[in-house]
Amino acid sequence: MRLNNERDQKFVSHVMPEGAEGSLNSLSSLQNREALAVGEGVEAPVRLLVDKLDEEHLPSSGSPSYSVDWQLGLEDPNFVRATIERWRRTGQ
Fold first, then answer.
1. Cβ contact 38:20 at 8 Å
2. Which of 19, 30, 51, 77 is deepest in the core (most CB within 10 A)?
3. Do 38 and 72 fall into the same domain?
């Protein structure tokens, strides 16, 4: 998938096969749904396009709205204390 961060690109360069500098240089120019496949599963680095999912196959979950949810009160006022006690018991 597209990598613009130089640090991420450097990490990927360490796992790329020798002679794949051209493929590595293309990481920042990949479009949506494009990826670069490398490793034992392919003979050489391959640029590929991932199929677009139909609407009915897309995940139906959404990200929680932390800015709203964190303000909601907890029904059990001892929730935090009980959670910490459970962590301590399982850590023994």
1. yes
2. 30
3. no
- Whether residues 78 and 44 fall in one domain: no
Domain of 15? 6-51
- Per-residue model confidence as pLDDT tens digits over 6-50: 888 778 777 777 766 677 777 778 888 888 887 778 887 888 898
The stretches of 1-92 forming alpha helices (DSSP H) are: 6-15, 21-25, 66-69, 79-90
Q: Do 46 and 69 share a domain, yes or no?
A: no
Q: Which among 35, 29, 33, 34 has a CA at the least distance from the CA of 53?
A: 33
Based on the structure, what is the number of domains in the chain? 2
For the chain, the straight-line distance linking the first and the last C-alpha, in angstroms and rounded, comes to 42
